[in-house]
Amino acid sequence: DDDVDSGRWIEADVKTPQGYIVTVVCVYVHAGNTDDPAKMEQKYRFLDTMLERMGQLRDEAAHGGRQSVLCGDFNIAHTPLDIKNAKANETHAGFLPEERAYVDKWLGELRNLAGDIQGPYTWWSQRGRAFDNNVGWRIDYQFATPELAESACGFVIDKAPTYDKRWSDHAPLTITYDI
User: Fold this and answer.
1) Averaged in consecutive runs of 10 residues, what is the pLDDT profile of the chain (179 residues)?
2) 73 in catalytic set
3) CA 19 to CA 2: how far, in whole Å?
4) Catalytic residue among 73, 82, 140, 169
5) pTM
């Protein structure tokens, strides 16, 4: 009965030309606002609802069912490697320990493609010269069920070459899966 409309979950089954069926989910998690406890409660309710459905998708894949991939704007930077100024943002929505714990649950110990490096980022504030100085956040992700994740073989973040050439404050993340 609680409001969970502070995000978006669009789910569809997609059949590849080779006949492989993948459940593809487009996710948007609201950024939240530490100055507005109601907004943070909405965000956590949405994250809890996501966890429930993600568990169902994981269990289906583990028992020979469809593999799944979740992609989108999760509005949570997972570790200090995912945000340029981690220390300064520890009390801000998007980098709170409570939010990052959700990503821990989603990832476990996996971080295959980006590796243990600072960045690359997928979002930059519109304020100041964040884009020009690459002061960004990695908040756009793809999370896949284990079998599909093992087939991931590369990624590209399509960052615009200059501020005036970009069409959003986000850059698209594309992952190649060998299926």
Assistant:
1) 74 93 95 91 92 92 92 93 92 94 74 72 92 94 90 93 92 92
2) yes
3) 39
4) 73
5) 0.87
